[in-house]
Amino acid sequence: MTQSPAATTPSLSTSASSTNTGSSTSASTTSGASTSATSTDACTTFGTRPNNTLASPLLNFTQMFADYSEMAVHFNGTVDGNGVDAAYNYTVVSQDPQAFRVNVTSTYVGYAVHFVDYLWRNGTAAASYFDGQNYTGAEGLPIFLLSMAPYVVANAFGSEQGILGQLQSLGAIHPVYAGTVELGPTLANVTTYVPSFLPLAQKTCGISYDITALSAQVGTIPEEPLRLITAMSVAGSFSASGVSESLDVSVQVTSVTRSG
User: Of 63, 88, 64, 79, whose CA–CA distance to 254 is shortest?
Assistant: First the structure.
């Protein structure tokens, strides 16, 4: 079986189309008072088929793979009560004007799992190769998201149109620290944000969430446009495309290598 997707291979239905939608954020304080704010933001919807859709303000893997050829992340905590403590590492092994080929390794309790993901430059995930088999279409989307789990979190929160960007524009989070951190061979300028009130609840672009605890370090690297979550701890419940999960996790980027 070949590991390369043919030109006619069905996509994972993560190609993007942008629409505008109103979003709102509300929170209740311990005294019973309520704080709310409303904004209009652009969001990107992934997929068109009812049984194979993923909606998010932004999951910009194309920009991430173009800017950073390698990224290592430590991901730990609980998801729906199940413990996870894993190290992830992706490496862009080839790219051309049409597509990226990315090797991903997830290591959990000493056991390594390997994936090969193919992503067209228009943002469409073409295929994921795992355990000797190519997965595409409805079967491939969960495999792709599994292989990119901590990077999904980093993208969904970190981008200016993502969850933190929305909360920042609404005054729901505020900075408490600014400095620099070394991420392997790369130096990043970072700012740490914490909530201005809790909980933080929002429903926008097909995603709803109720955050009960949050500390997020957002990094920028000189001359690179993509913001990164370099460290984050978050607890709460999240729902997208009919799938709901409770999370209490930490994500820590340990190394970033710039492309070129």
Answer: 88
CA distances from 111 to 87, 88, 108, 224 (A): 10, 12, 5, 34
Summarised one tens digit per residue, pLDDT across range 68-106 is: 999 999 999 998 888 889 999 999 999 998 899 999 999
Task: In whole angstroms, give the CA distance from residue 177 to residue 20.
Answer: 32
Indicate the domain borders of the chain: 16-60+68-87+152-258
Cα–Cα distance between 257 and 71 in angstroms, integer? Answer: 6
pLDDT in tens, 141-164: 888 888 988 888 777 787 667 788
